[in-house]
Amino acid sequence: MNNKIKTTLRYLWRNKLFTALNMIGLSIGISACWLVFSIVHYELSFDKKIPDIEHVHQIVSRQEFEGKKSSFAGVPLGMAPLLADESLDDALIVPIYNQNFERLSIPQDHEEEPLTLDEQEGIVGTRADYFQLLPYEWVAGNAETAFFQPNNLVLTEERARQYFPKNSSTELLGKVIVADTTQFVVSGVVRKLSFPSSFNAQVFMSIPDKEWHNQNWSGMNSNHTLYVKTKNQASLKRLLSMVIQRYQETAAKEHEKLGAKINFTSSPLKDKHFEKQFDTEGSSINKKVLYGLVMIGGFLLILACINYVNLSTSQMPQRAKEIGVRKTLGASPLYLTANFLVETLFTVLLALLLSWPIVELFRRIYPEFIPSGMEQFNNNWIVVLFLFILVLLVSLLGGLYPSYLINKVRSIDTLKGKIETKIKGTRFSLLKALIVFQFVIAQFFVVGALIIGQQLDFTLQKDLGFAHDAIVTIRMPYKSYQNADVDPFLYKQALSKYPEIANIALGHEPQNNSHWGDIYYFAADTGQVQLHAPRKYVDKDFVDLYHIELLAGRNIQQTDTMREVLINESTLKPLGISSPEQAVGHILTQDDNKNFSIVGVFKDFHQKSLHVKIEPLILGSSNKSGQLQTFHIKLPNDRNLWTKTFALMEKEWKIFYPNAPFEYKFADEKIKTLYGTEHRTAKLIDLATGVTIFISCLGLFGLATLTAFQRTKEIGIRKVLGASVSGIVAMLSKDFVKLVFVAIIIASPIAWWAMNKWLEDFAYRIDIEWWIFALAGFLAVVVALLTVSWQAVRAAVANPVDSLRDE
Amino acid sequence: MIKITNLQKYYRTEEVETVALNNLTIHVKEGEFVAVMGPSGCGKSTLLNIVGLLDDLDEGSYLFNNIEVAKFNERKRSDLRKHNIGFVFQSFNLIDELTVFENVELPLVYTNVPAAERKRRVEEVLEKVQIMHRRNHFPQQLSGGQQQRVAVARAVVNTPKLILADEPTGNLDSNNGNEVMHLLTELNEAGTTIVMVTHSEHDARFADRVIRMLDGQVIMETTTF
C-alpha cells in the first residue's frame, strides 16, 4: 500500500500539468456540489425538528377575485379568539401577530442612561400555546408562567444580550422594557431555536387586548397568522367548519359584493417553507429552485468527471508501456484497477482541498446566492459525510472507465512499441461530440452575458425623460420622535439660501413604485371617460429640478390643497385629447366631486423601470410631509464643492430634525436598484460563462493532446517531406476550430431565442444584433486556438527523427 | 520444458489474413539456452510472445512443463507467467516512475512475497548484476547498459525457470552488450532455461542451439559448441 501511494504521488508529480488540470476541473464540480448540498440541506431542514410537525397546520385562505385565484396566509382578527374560546383539549391554537413599536426604551442598572432602540423587528404577540408548539429551551422562567401577567414579555438570549448588555440572562426576570408608551416586564428568556425555522421571532408578548377583542372578519393582513396543532383530524375539521360558518355569517356578503370569494382551509406546516404564497417572512423557497440547483451541481460534476475521463484517456497512450510491463510481470486486472482508482482518489482529494478556498471565495463574492441564515446552522458533520461520499463517488465515476481501458491494453502491443489504436479510435467521435456540447453551452453563456450586459448598460444610459445626474434624495422623517411634524418647507427654505445648493424640491421620487392611485372622471366629447392613473405629489420646483419638459401650459402653483395638476403625454390618449395644448384648462373630477384643473402637459418620462411601458401619470401639488415624502437636492456642477454642500445640508438637518439620521442617496444609485434582479442574474451568468469556457477548454486540451499524439507519425512524415511548423500548427488547429464553429452554429439560435425571451421582460430594450454572435464566436475561436496551440506547437516542433524511429 | 507442436498463428485485419507462424514445432529442454534468429517479420517475436504466454495461439498445442496451456485464459496464463517466466526486452521496459529497487521488486509484489523477503532478494540480485549502488536512482538516470542490467535483475528476481529475451543487446553498444550476454550465460549455467531472439550472430554464439526462421517456419536448427 505504501509503495502504491508513493508511486501514485510520484506519477502525479511527474505529470504536473495534467494533475493540475484534473484537479482544477474536478474542484469546480466538487465546489458546486458542496455549495448546492449546503444550500439544499439547509432549506430542506426547515422546521423539521418541530415535534409532531405532521400534526401542525397553518390556517390560510383561498381567494377568488375577478376570476383570479390566490392564496393568503393572513387571517381576520376574529378567528383566533373564536377558536381559543372553543378550548378543545386536543388542540393547540397559536396565533402570531406581528407587533410594531417605533421605539423601545430599556432602563439599565446603576443609573445608566436607558438604552433606546428604534423599529425593532421580530416582536410578536401570541399565546402561551406558542411555547408548547415550538421546542424552546428556557434559560430563565418557563412556559407555564411566561404570560402570567398581561404585560409579560419573553426574550431570546440574543435579544436579552442586546437589550441588557450588562446583565446575564438569568438576572433578567422582572426587568422592564418600555415599548412606545407601554411598560412590559420580562418573564422569561429562551435560547433561539437550534434549527432553521419559519418561526424567527425574538420577542414574545401576549396579544394586546385591542387586537384580541377585535371581532373583525372582513380584513386580512399578513401580520396576523394562525397555527393549529392537533393529532385529531376531526378536531381540525371542526375548527375549520366553525371558522367558515362564522365568516359566512359576518363578512362573506360584504366580500361577495366586491366580487371576492373567500374560503378558509389548512396548510401543513411541513410544506410551509416551500409555499411562497404563505410566506410572511420572506424566507420561503420554491422547490423548483432547489431542483434547479441540484441539477446545476450534478451537471457540473458530470462535466468535471467527463473531463477527468477525457484527460486520463488522452494520457493513456503515454502510459500504455507502463501498464504493459506491469501486466507482463503478472499484475492482475484487479490490481491495475485498484492502482488507477487510488490515483484517481488522490487527484479527487487534492481537488477537494482546492475546492475549500473556492467555496469560501464564492461565499464572499456571491453572498446574495447563499441563504442568509445558513451560516448559523452549519452542520459540519453532515457536510463532511457528504464530501466523503462525494469523493468516493467521483473517484469511481472518473476512475472506472480509464481503469477499464487500462485492462483492455494488450501488453504485447505496448511492449512492441505499438500504441493501442482502439483506445484512440473508438473514443474519438465521442470526445468530439462532448467538446461540441461543451462549447455550445459556453457559447450560449457568452452570448447571454454580452446581451445582459448591454441591456443593463442601456437601462443606465437610456434617456429616462428626466435629469438624474448629481441629485441626492433624503427621506423625510416620519416617526413621531424624529420631529416628523416639522414643516418640510422650513428645511427647504433653509437650504435655498445657500448658493451651493443648485435647487431643492419636495415630492415623490420620479422613478419608483410609490404613488397615490385614483380614479378620475373626465367629460370628453364622446361622454364621460374614466381614467385610472397614479398620482405623484410634488412641489413647484420639482419639474424644474428634474428638467421635466413642459409641452404645453405652465407649471403648478404651490397651494395648500391640490387644485391644479400636470398630466403626461400618455394621459392624452385615454382622455381622447389629440394635442397637449387642447388639454390645458380641462377639468378632472374625483368621486367625491373634487375638481382638478389641468394646467400643463409634460413630456413622458419613465416613472417606472424599463420593464414596463410608460403609462398615464398625474403630478399634483401638496404641502404635507406625509404625501411629499422625499427631499430632492441638486448638487452644484463643481464636484469639489460637494463635501461642503453635504456639510451644509447636515448642519441644517440637525437644526430641524435633531433626532433623525442624516442619510442621503444618489438618484443614480436608486435607479440602479430597480434592476437588482438583473444585476444578480448578470453576476451569475458571468460566473457561468467563465466556468463553462474553462471546462470546455479542459476538454479541448485533452482532445488536442490525444490528437497530437495520434498524429505524431503523420507530423513527422510531413516535416520530413518539407512542411513548416506554422503549416502543421494550422493543420492541427483547423480541426478544432471546425468543432467550435459547429458549436457556434448550434448555440447561436438557442441563445438568440432565450435572450429574446429574457428581453421580453423589458418594455424598452436593446435589439439583438448580429455582431454579438460574431463577437462571441470570435472569442470562442480565440480561446480554442490558445488552448490547442500549445499542444499543436509542441507536436509541430518535435524532431521527426524521434517520432519515426518508434516504428 | 517447452513442447510446441503444429502451431498456427494468424493476424487478421478487416481485409487480409496474414499467417505469422505456420505449422511450427519447437521443443526446448530444461536448462537449455536457445537463440532464435531470422530476418525482420519472420515471426520470431510472435513466437517469443506465445512462449511467454503474452499472446495466444490459433491452432496447435503448447505444453509447458507437460501442462497444456494453449487454452488457458488470461488469468491462468498470468498466474503461470508470473511464477515461471522472466522477460528481458530490447527497449528495457523499465517503469519510469519507479526507482531501480522498485522496478526489480515489482514481480515479487505481484506474487505476494512479504516485504522483508522482497528486500533481501532484490538486494541480492542487484548485487549480482552490480547495480546495487544505483538502487535509488530512476531509470532515466542510468546508462543503457545499466538499465538492461536492471531489466535482467527484474527478470530473474523471482527465480523463474525460463527467461525470454527479445534482442536484449539491440539497444546497447558492444561492451554493454557483452556484459548482458555474460549475465545471461551465468544464469543459464546456474540452471535457468533461456530463449533469446536476436539478430546478432555474435550473441547467438552464446546459445547451445540456434533456431533459424523464415516466413513463420523453422528452416534450420544448428547446435553450437
From TrEMBL, chain A:
<feature type="domain" description="ABC3 transporter permease C-terminal">
    <location>
        <begin position="689"/>
        <end position="796"/>
    </location>
</feature>
<dbReference type="InterPro" id="IPR003838">
    <property type="entry name" value="ABC3_permease_C"/>
</dbReference>
<protein>
    <submittedName>
        <fullName>FtsX-like permease family protein</fullName>
    </submittedName>
</protein>
<feature type="domain" description="ABC3 transporter permease C-terminal">
    <location>
        <begin position="295"/>
        <end position="408"/>
    </location>
</feature>
<keyword id="KW-0812">Transmembrane</keyword>
<feature type="transmembrane region" description="Helical">
    <location>
        <begin position="428"/>
        <end position="452"/>
    </location>
</feature>
<feature type="domain" description="MacB-like periplasmic core">
    <location>
        <begin position="440"/>
        <end position="606"/>
    </location>
</feature>
<feature type="transmembrane region" description="Helical">
    <location>
        <begin position="289"/>
        <end position="311"/>
    </location>
</feature>
<keyword id="KW-1003">Cell membrane</keyword>
<feature type="transmembrane region" description="Helical">
    <location>
        <begin position="687"/>
        <end position="709"/>
    </location>
</feature>
<feature type="transmembrane region" description="Helical">
    <location>
        <begin position="332"/>
        <end position="359"/>
    </location>
</feature>
<feature type="transmembrane region" description="Helical">
    <location>
        <begin position="736"/>
        <end position="755"/>
    </location>
</feature>
<feature type="domain" description="MacB-like periplasmic core">
    <location>
        <begin position="19"/>
        <end position="238"/>
    </location>
</feature>
<feature type="transmembrane region" description="Helical">
    <location>
        <begin position="770"/>
        <end position="790"/>
    </location>
</feature>
<feature type="transmembrane region" description="Helical">
    <location>
        <begin position="381"/>
        <end position="407"/>
    </location>
</feature>
<keyword id="KW-0472">Membrane</keyword>
<dbReference type="InterPro" id="IPR025857">
    <property type="entry name" value="MacB_PCD"/>
</dbReference>
<dbReference type="GO" id="GO:0022857">
    <property type="term" value="F:transmembrane transporter activity"/>
</dbReference>
<dbReference type="Pfam" id="PF12704">
    <property type="entry name" value="MacB_PCD"/>
</dbReference>
<keyword id="KW-1133">Transmembrane helix</keyword>
<feature type="transmembrane region" description="Helical">
    <location>
        <begin position="20"/>
        <end position="42"/>
    </location>
</feature>
<dbReference type="GO" id="GO:0005886">
    <property type="term" value="C:plasma membrane"/>
</dbReference>
From TrEMBL, chain B:
<keyword id="KW-0813">Transport</keyword>
<dbReference type="InterPro" id="IPR017911">
    <property type="entry name" value="MacB-like_ATP-bd"/>
</dbReference>
<dbReference type="GO" id="GO:0098796">
    <property type="term" value="C:membrane protein complex"/>
</dbReference>
<dbReference type="GO" id="GO:0005524">
    <property type="term" value="F:ATP binding"/>
</dbReference>
<dbReference type="InterPro" id="IPR003439">
    <property type="entry name" value="ABC_transporter-like_ATP-bd"/>
</dbReference>
<dbReference type="InterPro" id="IPR017871">
    <property type="entry name" value="ABC_transporter-like_CS"/>
</dbReference>
<dbReference type="Pfam" id="PF00005">
    <property type="entry name" value="ABC_tran"/>
</dbReference>
<dbReference type="GO" id="GO:0005886">
    <property type="term" value="C:plasma membrane"/>
</dbReference>
<comment type="similarity">
    <text>Belongs to the ABC transporter superfamily. Macrolide exporter (TC 3.A.1.122) family.</text>
</comment>
<keyword id="KW-0067">ATP-binding</keyword>
<feature type="domain" description="ABC transporter">
    <location>
        <begin position="2"/>
        <end position="225"/>
    </location>
</feature>
<dbReference type="InterPro" id="IPR015854">
    <property type="entry name" value="ABC_transpr_LolD-like"/>
</dbReference>
<dbReference type="GO" id="GO:0016887">
    <property type="term" value="F:ATP hydrolysis activity"/>
</dbReference>
<dbReference type="InterPro" id="IPR003593">
    <property type="entry name" value="AAA+_ATPase"/>
</dbReference>
<dbReference type="InterPro" id="IPR027417">
    <property type="entry name" value="P-loop_NTPase"/>
</dbReference>
<keyword id="KW-0547">Nucleotide-binding</keyword>
<protein>
    <submittedName>
        <fullName>ABC transporter ATP-binding protein</fullName>
    </submittedName>
</protein>
<dbReference type="GO" id="GO:0022857">
    <property type="term" value="F:transmembrane transporter activity"/>
</dbReference>
